[in-house]
Amino acid sequence: MTSYAIIVAAGKGARAKRDKDQVPKQYVKVGGKAVLSWTLESFLTSDHIDHIQVVISASDDDLYQTVLHATQDNCHLANLAKTKLLPPCHGGSTRQLSVFAGLQALKNARPKDEPAEIDHVHIHDGARPFVNNDILQRCEESLIRNRACLVGMPLSDTIKRTNNLEEIEVTLDRTNLWSAQTPQSFQLPFILTAHEKAHAEGISDFTDDAAVAEWAGATVQMVEGSRNNIKITTQEDLTMAEQTLGQFSSALLTDIRVGTGYDVHAFDPGNVCIIGGVAIPHDKKLKGHSDADVGLHAITDAILGAIADGDIGTHFPPSDPQWKGAKSDIFLKDAVRRVNDLGGKISNIDMTIVCEEPKIGPHRPAIREAIADICSISINRVSVKATTSERLGFTGRKEGVAAIATVCIRLPEYD
């Protein structure tokens, strides 16, 4: 018997988007990883799942690749993915059509010489990252006796039915009422045939697979899920997941790295200096191929040093004309992305600006805020200091500005 999982991740998830999110909810990062990464990890590490079919939108191929890259950065997950993870397929305009696409992909991927009569399939929402191995085990046990089962929880709240004016009409008896979750699990031949029949008859608006099974004549067994096994639907759900997964992720980030960065830029004729992402009025500017932001350059190199990934010149060579005059937040955001792709997080940033002029003190709050915003961390994790060199050296002669940065990063332990 082979157990498959179909992870449905083809939706757009507009209700869960925050202003800063430009991607569907399943690709929003919480706890340093995309929601879909957490969901996928639960199935990869489960000893009840043999193969996984992910269903994505045709417009999300690049986003899904970032999920795969994050998986490859963990040796254990990478090895599991090699044996369990099937190539993704593209979903349809409704959830039912997306599941149908996943089932067809499984049908085509299965070895032709193996009987399918006893195979199982667990169909799960990509934006439901809190599924666990115990739930999957209960589903597997149910499928020994039943063609179909549905994970859910008995309702504990009192249920009211209202009219169109939101006036209460009746209080319902909550006895025997359950809230449905996923996975929804089936004997594979049965649910495949049921979906094919519904597709042939032009029916595409079933909201879950248990409804398809009921329509096809099966009795669906309820299996207890977990109150934590929520689907991320709203911004409030996303905030809760971020808190929960963030704490879980932090507990696993035990590889502490420290990097240092140092940068220098000379003065040139001008009227403003860009330091730490802030334009500071001055009778000179800083000379450089990009906008010459000495502060952001030092922080970028400190991050790259902490993750042993070259330096700013490695990824953005000054010989490349496309970076002429570029804003330095591009470089820093790329370094932060590299940390995120490793499943890590920036713990804190400490930067010192060395110069006689311009005066940094009045602009320090704005610089801290700019760095925190670029790095997507709390301003309480950003320190900015300023000092002079007591009129010694090139900074003492007012020939330019230097910056020194130290960054602490937390990463997962790797094999």
From TrEMBL:
Region (2-C-methyl-D-erythritol 4-phosphate cytidylyltransferase): 1-256
UniProt cross-references to Pfam families, sorted A to Z: IspD (PF01128), YgbB (PF02542)
Alphabetized Gene3D superfamilies for the sequence: 2-C-methyl-D-erythritol 2,4-cyclodiphosphate synthase, Spore Coat Polysaccharide Biosynthesis Protein SpsA, Chain A
Cofactor(s) needed for function: a divalent metal cation
Residues that, per the record, bind 4-CDP-2-C-methyl-D-erythritol 2-phosphate: 263-265, 289-290, 311-313, 387-390, 394, 397
Biological process annotations from GO: isopentenyl diphosphate biosynthetic process, methylerythritol 4-phosphate pathway; terpenoid biosynthetic process
InterPro entries membership: IspD, IspD/F, IspD/TarI, MECDP_synthase, MECDP_synthase_CS, MECDP_synthase_sf, Nucleotide-diphossugar_trans
Annotated positions binding a divalent metal cation: 263, 265, 297
GO molecular function: 2-C-methyl-D-erythritol 2,4-cyclodiphosphate synthase activity; 2-C-methyl-D-erythritol 4-phosphate cytidylyltransferase activity; metal ion binding
UniProt-listed SUPFAM superfamilies: IpsF-like, Nucleotide-diphospho-sugar transferases
Residues flagged as site, Positions MEP for the nucleophilic attack: 174, 231
Record region (2-C-methyl-D-erythritol 2,4-cyclodiphosphate synthase): 257-415
Keywords: Isoprene biosynthesis, Lyase, Metal-binding, Multifunctional enzyme, Nucleotidyltransferase, Transferase
Reaction(s) the record says it catalyses: 4-CDP-2-C-methyl-D-erythritol 2-phosphate = 2-C-methyl-D-erythritol 2,4-cyclic diphosphate + CMP; 2-C-methyl-D-erythritol 4-phosphate + CTP + H(+) = 4-CDP-2-C-methyl-D-erythritol + diphosphate
Site residues, Transition state stabilizer: 15, 25, 289, 388
Domain spans labelled 2-C-methyl-D-erythritol 2,4-cyclodiphosphate synthase: 256-409
Keyword Iron listed: no
EC number: 2.7.7.60, 4.6.1.12
Pathway: Isoprenoid biosynthesis; isopentenyl diphosphate biosynthesis via DXP pathway; isopentenyl diphosphate from 1-deoxy-D-xylulose 5-phosphate: step 4/6; Isoprenoid biosynthesis; isopentenyl diphosphate biosynthesis via DXP pathway; isopentenyl diphosphate from 1-deoxy-D-xylulose 5-phosphate: step 2/6
Function: Bifunctional enzyme that catalyzes the formation of 4-diphosphocytidyl-2-C-methyl-D-erythritol from CTP and 2-C-methyl-D-erythritol 4-phosphate (MEP) (IspD), and catalyzes the conversion of 4-diphosphocytidyl-2-C-methyl-D-erythritol 2-phosphate (CDP-ME2P) to 2-C-methyl-D-erythritol 2,4-cyclodiphosphate (ME-CPP) with a corresponding release of cytidine 5-monophosphate (CMP) (IspF).
Family according to the record: Belongs to the IspF family. In the C-terminal section; belongs to the IspF family.
Protein name as it appears in the record: Bifunctional enzyme IspD/IspF
Organism annotation: Cohaesibacter gelatinilyticus
Lineage summary: Bacteria, Pseudomonadati, Pseudomonadota, Alphaproteobacteria, Hyphomicrobiales
